[in-house]
Amino acid sequence: MTQLEGHVALVTAAGGGIGQATAWLLAERGAAVIAVDIDETGLAETAAKAAGRLSILKGDATKWDDAQAAVAAAKREFGKLTILANVVGGSRPGQTILDMSPEDWSHWVDLNLTSTFLMCKAAIPLMAESGGGSIVNVSSGAGVTGMMRNPAYVAAKGGVIALTRSLAIDHADQHIRANCVAPGPILTPLMERNRRPEEIDYLAKMTLAGRIGMPHDIAATIAFLSSKDGEFINGELINVAGGRRGGV
Questions:
Q1: Distances from the Cα of 50 to the Cαs of 21, 35, 113, 154, 213, in angstroms?
Q2: Where does the source fall among the domains of life (predicted)?
């Protein structure tokens, strides 16, 4: 498939889960991909199984120097940047705001929201120089409806949605679109760490699709939003949740 031929994509959290699936699919559809993660083992797997042009780079999206280095790698290796997929995120449920230390709050907000800010700040100048492109930020259903005992994650993922709308407004004149995907229950390593098997089965039953989501389901939405077919979509939030029938 050559739907994204001529594009250059930068994908964060590309060493596993949704980020890895996104890197693979964008490369399969013709884009040249810079896959970024702090997980060198996961990145090696991403590179080994990629079908297409894909380079890997160890980097921490919560660090400004690393965000700049990732964008510089895209320019150095492929000459431009037209797609940015901000997938970095994570949480550890179990605390209310009263239980959470200020340090924990900062950690989870940095991981889920500040990483998106930094990557966008680094990438937008090169995207503008490249003639424009597509930013797709990954939020969460928790950022839309809330979630028990996970306040920093909920706040940060809600912030990703609001930031996306701001980006769309501010950078439309540079031909840069920004959209947000809110995954529902997706079988990622994060879910497997945070949920018991019986909880995962329950979440699958709570979708109209009758199954748990897979990383490819989110990757396919990111690929669509980044393609010519998605060029009239800007500043939007797309819930990819299999038709949820209940809360988290």
A1: 10, 11, 28, 33, 21
A2: Bacteria
Domain with 120, as residue range(s), is: 8-185+215-235
Question: pLDDT tens across 18-39, in order?
Answer: 999 999 999 999 999 999 999 9
User: In sequence order, what are the residues at sequence separation of 6 or more whose Cβ sits closer than 8 angstroms to the Cβ of residue 227?
Assistant: 3, 4, 29
- Exposed, middle or buried, 173 (CB in 10 Å: 0-12/13-18/19+)? exposed
Smallest Cα–Cα separation from 153: which of 142, 164, 169? Answer: 142
What type of residue sits at position 150? N
Choosing from 153, 158, 176, 226, which is the catalytic residue?
Answer: 153
Q: Which residues contact 195 (CB under 8 A, 6 or more apart)?
A: 203
Question: DSSP for 1-23?
Answer: --TTTT-EEEESSTTSHHHHHHH
Task: List the structure tokens of 219.
Answer: 């990757």
* CATH number of the domain within which 51 lies: 3.40.50.720
Residue 202 bears catalytic tag: no
The model's pTM is 0.96
Specify the pLDDT at position 248. Answer: 41
b/e map 187-211, b = 16+ CB within 10 Å? bbbbbeebbeeeebeebbebbeeee
Total structural domains within the chain: 1
- Rounded to whole angstroms, the maximal C-alpha distance in the chain is 51
Q: How far is Cα 166 from Cα 235, in angstroms, rounded to an integer?
A: 8
d(CA 141, CA 158) in angstroms, rounded, equals 9
Q: Which tokens belong to 97?
A: 């705001």
| Span 176-192, pLDDT tens digits | 999 999 999 999 987 88
